[in-house]
Protein: Transcriptional regulator
Organism: Micromonospora costi
Amino acid sequence: MSQRNTDVSAQLNALTGCAPDAVTPFTPGQARACTVREVLDRVGGKWSIGILVAASQGPVRFTELERQIEGISRRMLTLTLRNLERDGLLERRVHPTVPPKVEYTATPIALELYESLVALTSWAERHRGAIAAARQTYDREHTTP
């Protein structure tokens, strides 16, 4: 790991209170702080943002999410939905029909997060061209001929 990555990791550990390795014991406050990192990892995950934005619009079915979220596999959608439900961000409702109808709805805490997620996705949309150009410039400057 580079010195810069080590510094960033140390800063994140200091901010979250997470121990730098598995050997160092956690105090109760540190365990709670690490949960903050886990929550940020979950809601900032590759697929979570799209799912939460979709579910914040109202009840959404598995197949609707599968169609809306480009590139997600059925397995990854299932795992992400399960994790978001476990974290209290989604509510899963099974309707007693044949076949069973399953809908996912954003919980109040997910709805509170919604504006931030929309702002983040809007930012990404506005700046994706600039980021793509910066990557091309970087790659051109750092590629050996």
About this structure: The mean pLDDT is 83. Helices lie at 3-16, 28-43, 48-55, 62-68, 74-86, 108-142.
